[in-house]
Every structure is written in C-alpha cells, then in structure tokens.
Write a structure and sequence with these properties.
- It is a single chain.
- With about 100 residues, the protein is of the alpha+beta class.
- The protein has a domain of about 60 residues: Hypothetical protein rpa1041 (Alpha-Beta Plaits, 2-Layer Sandwich).
- It has 2 helices and 3 strands.
- It has a 3-stranded antiparallel beta sheet, covered by helices on one side.
- The radius of gyration is 16 Å and the shape is globular.
C-alpha cells in the first residue's frame, strides 16, 4: 500500500494571492493559455482577517510548466500583450511554436 503512483504529476506554485476570486482569475488565464492550473486554498471566508499562511490561496501548475506560467504571468503583470505561441516564452510541454 505504501507505493506511490509513478504517473502522478508534481505541481509547483505559480502565484500566491489573498482571495479565492483572484486565484480563479489567475488560474483561468493560465488555462486559457493552455497551461493546466488548479487553486489550492486554506483560506477561510468566515474569518474577518487573514491569519498568516491560512489566508494564502495558491495557483498551482504542473512543475514542468512552471517556468512558462511564471513568464506569462510576469508579462501580463507588465501589461504586455501575452501570446502563448511567442517564441521568446519558454515552450516546455507544448510542441514547436507555429511559424
């Protein structure tokens, strides 16, 4: 019973935000760019304040797509137009960019 699944995907944190709503927007942006994303939260909406890590909401992506996700989020934060087929962005996990 103690065996781990070999096909289990490792996930990395692409962004930490303070609300589930913001995390859903970030995850949606990544998904629309072709990067699988999930929201991981210990956030308790009923509490009137955030208590350290309990207030964090993480947007997680497969570890092999983390660099690509970070590049897309950084470009978006700078207000740049983001094109997932841009050859300057890391293309891990997606075939060759279209010419």
């Amino acid at each position: 019973m103690g065996e781990e699944k070999q096909d289990e995907v490792e996930w990395g944190t692409a962004r930490i935000v303070e609300s589930n709503e913001e995390a859903i927007v970030v995850a949606g942006f990544l998904k629309s760019s072709g990067i699988p994303a999930e929201v991981e939260s210990l956030h308790v909406e009923e509490l009137p304040v955030n208590v350290g890590a309990l207030g964090e909401v993480r947007v997680r992506v497969p570890a092999d797509r983390l660099e690509e996700a970070l590049s897309l989020l950084d470009a978006s934060d700078r207000g740049e137009s983001v094109d997932p087929s841009d050859p300057d962005l890391p293309q891990t996990g997606q075939g060759e960019p279209a010419e």
